[in-house]
Amino acid sequence: MSETTISERFPGLYDRRARALARAITTIERGGTERDALIREVYGRRGNARIMGFTGPPGAGKSTLVDRFARLCRAADQTVGILAVDPTSPFTGGALLGDRIRMQELYTDPEVFIRSMATRGAMGGLARATRDAVDLLDAVGFDWVLVETVGVGQDEVDVVRTVDTVAVITLPGLGDEIQAIKAGIMEIADVFVINKADRPGVDRTRRDLESMLAMGGHRDWTPPIVQTVASQGEGLEELHEKVGEHRQHLADSGELDRRRFHQLRLRVETILKARVLEAADAEMGLETQLEEAFGAGDDPYTVADRLFEGVVRRQS
């Protein structure tokens, strides 16, 4: 698929027109050869956007925070693409639209694009297609790409493999939630945000976070703690400033290139794993092989070896 073909297939894509972007992300979600060709064509254009992830427990106000952060970026005349990763609907398999409803004021801005994506059972709170969609929004020239994840706990660590800066959101009065952060996503935070900071308990929450940070685990960058009341627009300027400082740190230390290298490694590994499974199923019938192995009492390593050797033999 050449660039001319992409322009014909998705007219207005490089002008960041909403209809073209929506159709392109739908193509990404569907997968297959069209998805592969699209990413190949846009990949060389990516690399300029500031890519930020927002994660944390349900009820922490992530959507409101993303909304207000996006408005702040727009006030600075910066364009914004938002990917809101929603829980998969148990009835339709599609994304629930809560985030779109909360961000509807941004929809009238032609320099903001918002897309809800369903997790479709993917681990880590991220849709399988999210990484490709981030590349697309970066490639077409958005200044910011904001990724809001479901907020389901420890599996949220997957977000760090997709973005450059991770904001972990919590709120006052949830001591158990701080423990959940410590157990699962503490180590991925580049910035901590205590949202709804007008509630009682904010000082204790801050002390808890400071105590955990004092225990170490962050070698070159100590995540700052920012207090916000997103619904009132309070604290957003400080958050924007700290994100900018982190971005500068990434560039100065070489960590930005290291992060993006590891992101590439993860994506290639994920693609290879999926293709090996697809080949095993196509060449040998994965389900049939598993049923036979189960009946024979074969151990999983023997089964995997047999499938892998069968795929290699038939592909050679």
Main sheet specs:
7 strands, parallel
- Indicate the multimeric state: single chain
| Total count of helical runs of at least 4 residues | 12
What order do the SSEs take from the amino end to the carboxyl end, as H and E?
HHHEHEHEHEEHEHEHHHH
As a whole number of angstroms, the C-alpha radius of gyration is 21 Å
Percentage of residues in helical conformation: 40-55%
| Low-confidence runs of at least 5 consecutive residues | 89-99
Distance between the termini: 28 Å
What do the pLDDT scores average to?
84
Name the structural class. Answer: alpha/beta
Quantity of strands, as a count? 7
Coarse morphology: globular
Tell me the strand order in the biggest sheet. 3-2-4-1-5-6-7
Measured by DSSP, the beta-strand proportion falls in: 5-15%
Protein described:
By secondary structure, the protein is an alpha/beta fold. The protein contains twelve helices and seven strands. Strands 3-2-4-1-5-6-7 form a seven-stranded parallel beta sheet, sandwiched between helices. Helix 5 links the parallel strand 2 (80-86) and strand 3. Helix 2 crosses helix 3 (32-43), helix 2 runs antiparallel to helix 6 (130-139) and helix 10 (255-284) packs across helix 12. The longest helix is centred in the last third of the chain and has 30 residues, at 255-284. It starts with a helix and ends with a helix. Residues 89-99 have low confidence and may be disordered.
